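Form 7-S
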Amino acid sequence: MSKKFRSGFVPIIGRPNVGKSTLLNRILGRKVSITSPKPQTTWTNVLGVKTREDGQIIFVDTPGFHNPRGNFNTHMVERAKESLREGDLILHLTDVINPFSPEEELVIREIKATKVLSILVINKIDLLKDPSQSKEIEKVFSKKHNYNAILKVSALKGENLDQLEEVIISLLPEGPPLFPEEVYTDQSLKTLAREIIREKVFHFTHQEVPYCCAVVVEEFREDPSRNFLYIQATINVERESQKGILIGKGGGMLKKIGSAARRELEELLGKKIYLDLWVKVQEDWRERDYLLRDFGLLK
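Output:
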């Protein structure tokens, strides 16, 4: 008898910087969610679809759980909470670096409130010098919540991810695929371009600057006859001082961000790209819902 097909939504939740986006990209075998060494890189929920012969997993990469300060961060945390309420199975991702952070209590409290099946995934085991440390983490978390499974992985190295997939499929409800087999994300190419540009801002700028930059793709024009794509985007900042840092001396910083983004987009999309970047000041945009909606950061 053939196995019955299983499918469902699986939000990946956890505190900032535990490797949620890296895990999603590694399982899918392609980049759908941007990453950086800085916390709170993910600002919106990102869907990633893994279709197999026996099931379809609709992962939802989410902003990191934290005690929010300010309007925009409050919206980010609320988006993560929404994904829990809509999930069929929750992946609670923690890591071996700081597993007993107070933010973990926020995550566990939200999981308990949903009564949804859950898996604890202990990430970054490749960084452990003493493997017994992961047993202590497992012991502590097991006392806090009755997880349906606990696994130890390295998203960066790909360790134990096949096993994780099998456990996920086994816990999903029976049901048909929710997306066509060829679909791996709900993101448009325009959204992907926005996120890649923002990722490069995170890589090249520091302190408060990357958190004050909202990217809007103003124009996205393809020329199939030349396999060419024109993208015009605006990076919105909150202060003139941030604009100066982002542009850099002689435009050097903006050129660096643009070149890195263009190279990655050309590699991902397989076509020549002209990327035209501008910087604009929109004072206190993170506190203004109408601007968050204009920037595609709030429904």
